[in-house]
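Note to self: keep these together.
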Amino acid sequence: MSDATASLSRYWLRDNCPCTECRNPRNGQKLFQVTELPEELAIAATTELHGHLEVLWNDGHRSRYPLPWLAAGKTAEAENAAENAAVNGNEDEDDRRTEAGKRRWQAADFAAGLPEANWAQYLAEPAERAAVLRAVLRLGFAVLREVPTTPRQVLDVVASFGHPRVTNYGELFDVRVEPDPNNLAFTSAAIAPHTDNPYRDPVPTLQVLHCLENAAVGGDSGLVDGFRAAELLREQAPEEFAVLTRTLVPFVFRDRATELRADRPLIELDPLGRIREVRLNNRSIGRLHLPAAELDAFYAAYRTFAAITLRPELRLEFRLGAGDCLIFDNTRLLHARTAFEPGDTAQHREGRGGRHLQGCYADLDSLASTLAVLERRAAALDELQRLFEGEGAAEYLGEQVTQAEHMLQAAALAQRDGAPDHLVAAALLHDVGHFTGALTGRQLMLGQDNHHSEAGADWLAQWFGPEVTEPVRLHVAAKRYLCSVEPAYREQLSEASAYTLRVQGGPLDAEQAAAFAELPGATDAVAVRRWDDRAKAADADTPPFEHFRELLAALMAR
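Structure:
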């Protein structure tokens, strides 16, 4: 057994086989049941090649794992074992909802400025958007500046990472002084640090507040890291911390049209004892029905915790101006507001001289999903670049260019011919299956078809749609097709390409050629094939992979 697998569970290893027989390449979902694995599962042989470990199992199945992924698996096993003994957390494996995935803070930590970004830059640059979303997950909040001050714009902010959560307040709500408010938020009074909607099950996990106008005297915003406050309670009064984690509190909201209730602790832990959620809203706590001794213990702990959240050093205060949009984690951060001069209500309704925010609820899972996709795309581009600079630097099936030079030349030819971006990408990536499939180009040259077109298309389907993957999938069939319908084409093939044609099945017969021509991606595949054939010139002026990154990133986002 390889050193890379010696400390890993064999069932865990097989259950995580990344091949297309075991997982759907588009969504990563497993295609087998755990009960289908052999009772006496064992590793028959292992081989390390090009940064991967190939595992042959005793039932004949073959798996191929990246060595860094295996190393991360061993690290995760060690960290998880330690975590069961003492709660440490593992950010890479965690869902990033607990304290293990957060950086707790107090106000002084933002002396240099808030986590923020310009709205236009946030929309235009995936790295900037990822940084903002990462701040919301890691720090609990971020501010977007220069968001257009048009009504309902807050919904566009939410649409940039997720979906609005519709509540009894509607798709969005106006935070301004109302003549008949059903909530203290719609007055000019000061509001203590709190979380919103604790009476909902599940609670909205994100809140977004977009400032349309803030000409009022006062009305500054405040944030408190509820996880930091809970952490301080755990350190300074562990028994009271325990009381707040085990006492179910009835949170209630009623008005003429609504009645909501959720029974939850003020501090909620995950099964490993890590802080996962804070609910604190004195306006919404209903009557607890407990023995007097338990009520006394609860109120003592509640008062201690509330006092911690009011410590000045924990409260970050700032002013939202017109065009500022605050995104924050409603299960972690407590938000507050100073009192302000209400002025004339009619002026407020017209957006003149008052304080007017539009708010919306959303959910962290959508934000986390968007961030994960952005990070995955960036990682995919990095991985592709490593392939071009690593395995791609090796010889290309006996041709006068390397594999990477060949693919880069094909993409450059497509671009010079005015091809659409998806075909430039297909030309660039058409041969990645030589690196990513169970078999490599070496086996192909030894007379064993490695089916690299299918392997490459399946692998690329993680990030690209069929407009890119299908020309890749069909580019070998396109060679066989052209040999069938254009007699002169076969004579133009290089010696290596003529050899692989025989290994790949030779020219299509008339019936097969007719069937190929009817395939939806046949025309595109033939175009890729012709660039493929021309892209074998030694010392050609070839752009680097970096030249195509932006094009690939845009296609991933479609």
